[in-house]
Write a structure and sequence with these properties.
The structure holds two protein chains of two kinds. By secondary structure, chain A is mainly α. In chain A, 79% of the residues lie in helices and 0% in strands. Chain A is globular, with a radius of gyration of 20 Å. Chain A starts with a helix and ends with a helix. The model of chain A has no long low-confidence stretch (mean pLDDT 90). By secondary structure, chain B is of the alpha/beta class. In chain B, strands 6-7-8-3-9-10 form a six-stranded mixed sheet, with helices on both faces. A four-stranded antiparallel sheet of chain B has the order 2-1-4-5. The radius of gyration of chain B is 24 Å and the shape is elongated. Classes of the chains: A mainly alpha, B alpha/beta. Chains A and B meet through helix 1 and helix 8 of A and helix 2, strand 6 and helix 3 of B.
């Protein structure tokens, strides 16, 4: 156990700068969004802005479109903005592919020449994914509250803490889901680039599938395959309670990924 | 007795699809010996080592290391083993001392700092070297760091894969001294190599792999005895006849009036008998070289 702790600390030390930078950038992005929302709110331009949105986008967004065109809605955009989701999923994939990187670099030989059980390497990665997910999301929350406290106009309606918590919880579970998938892929790979690009391409494909399925009916039947379907931030902003099933599906995929990673890694040749 | 054996390998086979990397390997390594594991590239040396460390799972057979099955009791085995991989790679952004400390913490045997310092001194790695990032290290320095990490916890068994690859001749000598000292303290060394002069100098026994199969397992002295020696017989005056019918194992390389050159495999007796009554001034016997035998095995196998 003590050995595993040292291994975890070693891994955390290696990624600390990356995680800290992403955390700070995302927190900064949240503050920036609050500034944007304040600016639109002050110029009372939400209505003008909504006119600029093309019809197909309105159709795509549905009733949540109205919720989005508000101070609170703009502040919450950071929790489902494609750049934010992309960087968070990318970070998770980078963390999850550490075992493949250790095999590729040959460092795994040095680690496993010690009395260190293989499952600790996967446990280390799971712990790292969880810790870094919690940290980055906390940083985003801090950014949101910092922006609101410092920049929000007094008359503007703030997003409720419950809404932020719900978005964070859903986004966090989505990250864990991709962490599980990437770790399972990593546990059978010999190269980080292969594991990372496979998981990344899969994430991108399934993101696009979810998007396409919203506007193109034939794709609707396979939309359930995309984990992104189970993350509905716009509905959450509208005040619709996220179905527990969505969280369970994402958590289930994460869990299955972690279990598969343990299974594959314990049996494979290194 | 099983307890006298540091490594016991029985029928070890490893297949990668259709390719058989290791075929029915069986050998024993005794406690306190330096065992050389030889073979050309791709012969199966590293595969065997990786199986002993449970990094690879065998297709058949088993290996018992320090009295325990290396798969079933891998943790207990690796607690007492020090390993130097053939292709050693560290993270470039870590310093030498960070690597040593991390790897020491991951082991369960305490690392005596005085012993580590001693190793570092003998391998000429200074404390300023250790503070530098690994990416600034030369190949030789990385190798030395690898040797120190394998030895620092003073393990009962050292499994070394091509340990002197990249070391300069002086460092190789220092390393051999370290190995001899390790042996004096009763530790066992299992090392793969394809440097025959090194094996000849350091090892007590050797095993030779060829295309995944064991073709030779013998003490180094025995192997040397198998080697053909080149014998030059120098006469005081011209001799007008040859040595006559020599038994098999004797090959006449040149016959000159004042000098015969004969290659002899085995005893010199028949040649000495053939020289009876001749004006022999001198007899030069070349020291048999391990290389001569092993290269033959590399090429042809045991036949």
């Amino acid at each position: 156990m003590k050995e595993a702790l040292w291994l975890g600390l070693h891994s955390l030390k290696r990624v600390r700068v990356l995680v800290l930078m992403i955390g700070l950038l995302l927190a900064g992005f949240q503050v920036l969004l609050t500034m944007v929302a304040r600016s639109i709110h002050r110029s009372n331009a939400f209505e003008d802005m909504s006119k600029l949105i093309p019809d197909f986008m309105r159709q795509l967004l549905g009733p949540s479109f109205i919720a989005l065109m508000s101070f609170s809605g703009i502040v919450c955009v950071g929790y489902f903005h494609i750049a934010v989701m992309g960087s968070l999923v990318g970070l998770t994939i980078a963390l999850a592919t550490e075992p493949a990187s250790e095999i590729e670099t040959g460092f795994m030989d040095l680690l496993l020449a010690r009395p260190l059980a293989r499952h600790w390497l996967i446990s280390r990665s799971v712990a790292l994914i969880v810790v870094c997910t919690v940290f980055t999301l906390l940083m985003m929350m801090i950014g949101t509250w910092l922006g609101l406290y410092c920049l929000a106009p007094t008359e503007a309606e703030w997003p409720s803490p419950r809404l932020i918590r719900s978005l964070v919880l859903n986004l966090g579970v989505l990250m864990l889901c991709w962490g599980g998938v990437a770790l399972a892929i990593s546990s059978v790979s010999r190269r980080r680039s292969v594991a990372g690009s496979t998981a990344g391409l899969l994430a991108l494909s399934l993101y696009l599938l979810d998007y396409v399925a919203r506007v193109w009916e034939p794709a609707e039947s396979v939309r359930w395959l995309s984990p992104f379907m189970y993350y509905n931030p716009l509905e959450t902003i509208l005040g619709v309670e996220t179905p527990a099933r969505n969280l369970w599906v994402l958590a289930g995929v994460a869990f299955a990924g972690f279990v598969l990673a343990y299974f594959f890694f314990s049996r494979r040749d290194l | 007795m099983a307890t006298e054996l540091a490594i016991q390998i029985h029928g070890l086979t490893k297949k990668y699809g259709r390719l058989t990397a290791l075929k029915d390997l069986a050998l024993d390594v005794r406690y306190g010996e330096i065992f050389g594991f030889l073979g050309l590239n791709g012969a199966g040396k590293t595969t065997t080592i990786r199986i002993l460390l449970d990094l690879l799972r065998p297709s058949a057979g088993r290996a018992v290391v320090l009295g325990k099955d290396c798969q079933l009791h891998g943790l207990a085995v690796r607690e007492r083993v020090g390993h130097l991989p053939g292709e050693i790679r560290f993270y470039g952004d870590m310093s030498g001392v960070e690597v040593l400390n991390l790897l020491a913490r991951l082991g369960r045997r305490p690392v005596e700092m005085s012993y580590r310092r001693n190793l570092l001194e003998r391998l000429e790695l200074s404390s300023s070297d250790l503070r530098r990032r690994i990416r600034e290290y030369s190949t030789g320095m990385k190798r030395k760091l690898g040797i120190v990490q394998a030895l620092q916890s003073d393990p009962d068994l050292l499994i070394l894969d091509e340990p002197t690859e990249g070391l300069d001749p002086l460092m190789q000598e220092s390393f051999y001294e370290v190995l001899f000292e390790v042996r004096r303290r009763g530790r066992t060394v299992f090392m793969s190599s394809h440097v025959l002069s090194e094996v000849e100098k350091v090892c007590d026994r050797i095993a030779l792999l060829r295309k995944g199969e064991l073709v030779l397992l013998s003490p180094v002295e025995e192997v040397r005895r198998l080697a053909a020696r080149r014998v030059r017989v120098i006469f005081d005056r011209d001799v007008d006849r040859g040595p006559g019918n020599l038994p098999s194992g004797h090959e006449i390389l040149s016959l000159q009036p004042r000098c015969w050159t004969v290659r002899v495999s085995g005893h010199l007796g028949p040649l000495v008998d053939a020289m009876a009554g001749l004006p022999v001034r001198d007899l030069e016997v070349e020291k048999p070289r391990l290389e001569d035998v092993l290269i033959k095995y590399y090429r042809e196998g045991p036949s």
